[in-house]
Amino acid sequence: MELSVLEHGKAGSSSAGGCSSSSCGSTDDQLSHLPDSIRAKVQNHPCYSEEAHHYFARMHVAVAPACNIQCHYCNRKYDCANESRPGVVSEVLTPDQAVKKVKAVAATIPQMTVLGIAGPGDPLANPQRTFETFRQLTEQAPDIKLCVSTNGLALPDCVEELAKHNIDHVTITINCVDPKIGAKIYPWIYWNNKRIRGVKAAEILIRQQQKGLEMLVERGILVKVNSVMIPGVNDEHLKEVSRIVKEKGAFLHNVMPLIAEAEHGTFYGVMGQRSPDPEELQDLQDSCAGDMNMMRHCRQCRADAVGMLGEDRGDEFTLEKIEQMDIDYEAAMVKRAAVQASIMEELDEKAAQKARLANVSVPSLTEGRISRNYRSVQMAVATNGGGLINEHFGHAREFLIYEASPEGVRFIGHRKVDQFCVGNDSCGEKESALSGSIRALKGCEAVLCSKIGFEPWSDLEAAGIHPNGEHAMEPIEEAVMAVYQEMIAAGRLNGEKALFQANA
Amino acid sequence: MALKIVESCVNCWACVDVCPSDAITQGSAHFQIVTSKCTECDGDYAEQQCASICPVEGAILLADGMPANPPGSLTGIPPERLAEAMNEIQAR
């Protein structure tokens, strides 16, 4: 497997020439060129700003069980505690229960800024339950941003209502703009009191999605477009989707990998449709980036997720538990405002510091000669938030992947640590957490963490991944750049030899 | 004559919202159709609404006892393939 590097696009995808966009790449680029009004909307929204996701949390309430379409990657038997993917929840809530839960979470996790309704069905196919929840929250918890995610079929009919509830972030899942491709993704829709199938169904869905997108943009509501990358079905097509939604004024495009396992019982899972590898996903995201702001930090969370992206604290807030909590929301709002203000202050300081550092990266090392000959390097980072390298290697449930190159450091995605076997005797495939981690880090040449044990250290080295615990508690991007500079200084990036070694 | 919801129902509420006769109620384990209220949508719609939105094959029976949405008709997964996949998972 070849490493995805900016200068060395994968064979066969000539367009994967890397980041050709002014709007792609690091967090600064994403936010700094935005008008203040939009910046204010996204700077503390973990799903709309990569930087914000290190500091701010979100939650979803599962008040919307009904759906008006079927997608081939979804199975409506959604009640599962152990699966983490969209469409899955443990308990469906009534609007009253949801409001109670939101206030309990907001009081306990003051950095929780955003409440989204995302299912487990389609929020706009459950308009009474969804809008009743929004109505009560606007009244009782006015310091929380409200957000909704939809397949778009009922969107045009709901735009007025959404605007009325001050919702300024809407996500539409758009997997195609070509009905022939749509027919391979959506077996049916429920429309005008009929079940409609095939190309005709996809035509209606696509029309509604595009119309909804235009209507939202007209009203100044920020739109994120989610697309599921399905190899061989819509992967190439998503470049066109990205171009079109950008033209129509979508703010952000989030291309996510298909999740398909036979045990989920979905069409794609059972029929053996494969998911994309991280490299394929990244290439597609990079090609789309020429047209669009790309979101690369999505964790494809459940419709009842609670906490920072990548963590789920849902267990702390079951109906039973929130029943016993006594929440003084007025007091909570005071605390929340203080905590959030101090985070914003920290972010402002960080931005100022970055601006100072911007002029002293790789070029200084080569004494004014900006050598573009050095290839880029991917590194994995273990963090538990705050934008710092502050997680023990062995505790990391996921790693963030950064790419360092002469142009700077950019965030390119995350890898979950797949623990196929966690010691359950009935499991046939014995695989330690360690080999799971090492596999998740394929393509990375270093892993930065706060601490690391002796055993993983030698195994990682044997796999060609340099463990590095020397930058504990340092800001991620600066540490990645420092390690990159060390690699250059050590002569490890001279020529292509190291690249091939890393992938052997 | 009435339709019937059986235990494979996943309680997604979709049918409740579209029933023109208000005939669907929350049962103890799953939604139920009140026989005396169900009109099979006669006079309201050409197609029975609950059966047209239900996402689960086999969860709704027509008045004659046959599934409104037989295996494979909603997911597109051939029933043999589904059985095969389930066997493979069981065997693991």
UniProtKB/TrEMBL annotation, chain A:
<keyword id="KW-0949">S-adenosyl-L-methionine</keyword>
<dbReference type="GO" id="GO:0046872">
    <property type="term" value="F:metal ion binding"/>
</dbReference>
<comment type="similarity">
    <text>Belongs to the radical SAM superfamily. NifB family.</text>
</comment>
<feature type="compositionally biased region" description="Basic and acidic residues">
    <location>
        <begin position="1"/>
        <end position="10"/>
    </location>
</feature>
<dbReference type="InterPro" id="IPR000385">
    <property type="entry name" value="MoaA_NifB_PqqE_Fe-S-bd_CS"/>
</dbReference>
<dbReference type="GO" id="GO:0016829">
    <property type="term" value="F:lyase activity"/>
</dbReference>
<dbReference type="InterPro" id="IPR034165">
    <property type="entry name" value="NifB_C"/>
</dbReference>
<dbReference type="Pfam" id="PF04055">
    <property type="entry name" value="Radical_SAM"/>
</dbReference>
<feature type="region of interest" description="Disordered">
    <location>
        <begin position="1"/>
        <end position="23"/>
    </location>
</feature>
<keyword id="KW-0408">Iron</keyword>
<dbReference type="Pfam" id="PF02579">
    <property type="entry name" value="Nitro_FeMo-Co"/>
</dbReference>
<feature type="compositionally biased region" description="Low complexity">
    <location>
        <begin position="11"/>
        <end position="23"/>
    </location>
</feature>
<dbReference type="InterPro" id="IPR007197">
    <property type="entry name" value="rSAM"/>
</dbReference>
<protein>
    <recommendedName>
        <fullName>FeMo cofactor biosynthesis protein NifB</fullName>
    </recommendedName>
</protein>
<keyword id="KW-0411">Iron-sulfur</keyword>
<keyword id="KW-0004">4Fe-4S</keyword>
<dbReference type="InterPro" id="IPR003731">
    <property type="entry name" value="Di-Nase_FeMo-co_biosynth"/>
</dbReference>
<dbReference type="InterPro" id="IPR013785">
    <property type="entry name" value="Aldolase_TIM"/>
</dbReference>
<feature type="domain" description="Radical SAM core">
    <location>
        <begin position="53"/>
        <end position="302"/>
    </location>
</feature>
<dbReference type="InterPro" id="IPR036105">
    <property type="entry name" value="DiNase_FeMo-co_biosyn_sf"/>
</dbReference>
<dbReference type="InterPro" id="IPR058240">
    <property type="entry name" value="rSAM_sf"/>
</dbReference>
<comment type="pathway">
    <text>Cofactor biosynthesis; Fe-Mo cofactor biosynthesis.</text>
</comment>
TrEMBL record, chain B:
<keyword id="KW-0408">Iron</keyword>
<feature type="domain" description="4Fe-4S ferredoxin-type">
    <location>
        <begin position="1"/>
        <end position="29"/>
    </location>
</feature>
<protein>
    <submittedName>
        <fullName>Fe-S-cluster-containing hydrogenase component 2</fullName>
    </submittedName>
</protein>
<keyword id="KW-0479">Metal-binding</keyword>
<dbReference type="Pfam" id="PF00037">
    <property type="entry name" value="Fer4"/>
</dbReference>
<dbReference type="GO" id="GO:0046872">
    <property type="term" value="F:metal ion binding"/>
</dbReference>
<dbReference type="InterPro" id="IPR017896">
    <property type="entry name" value="4Fe4S_Fe-S-bd"/>
</dbReference>
<dbReference type="GO" id="GO:0051536">
    <property type="term" value="F:iron-sulfur cluster binding"/>
</dbReference>
<keyword id="KW-0411">Iron-sulfur</keyword>
<dbReference type="InterPro" id="IPR017900">
    <property type="entry name" value="4Fe4S_Fe_S_CS"/>
</dbReference>
